[in-house]
Each structure stands twice: as structure tokens, then as C-alpha cells.
Specification:
Blueprint lengths: L14 E3 L2 H18 L21 E3 L10
Antiparallel strand pairs: 1-2
């Protein structure tokens, strides 16, 4: 995930950097929208009432724990 903690491991681990700020911001925006529009009545626990998925970019951080495929 690109954090300082990840640098402590040997071999360096392969991880994925995710946009944490954008995930939080989009989540809060979606929640506020549901609350303001009255979309969140008693059906909030119904999976059919979930909004469309939001896709955000991620970055693969290839470390020493990744190897080429064996042939």
C-alpha cells in the first residue's frame, strides 16, 4: 500500500495502493445524497437499493515477493 510500515518487511511485499481519501469522500457524498433525497428509508438494508458501484484507480506496487510465472 506504499506505507512506511510496508518498507519494514523483507522481502518487500507486493501490495496495492488505493485512493483512501477519494474512497472516503465518495462514500460521504453518497451517504449525504441518500439522506438529503430521502432515499434511505426502511429499505437501506435491502441490497437492491444500493447505488451503482464507483470505480477508482489503484496502483500495483510490485515488491520482491512477486516472481515471474514459472514456465
Amino acid at each position: 500500500d506504499g506505507t512506511e510500515t510496508g518498507q519494514l518487511f523483507s522481502p518487500r511485499l507486493t501490495s496495492v495502493r488505493v485512493p483512501l481519501y477519494q474512497i472516503g469522500a465518495r462514500g460521504v457524498t453518497a451517504l449525504l445524497s441518500q439522506l438529503q433525497n430521502g432515499d434511505c428509508n426502511n429499505s437501506c438494508n435491502n441490497i437492491l437499493s444500493l447505488p451503482e458501484p464507483i470505480v477508482l484507480p489503484v496502483v500495483l506496487l510490485s515488491g520482491d515477493s512477486t516472481a515471474a510465472p514459472r514456465v
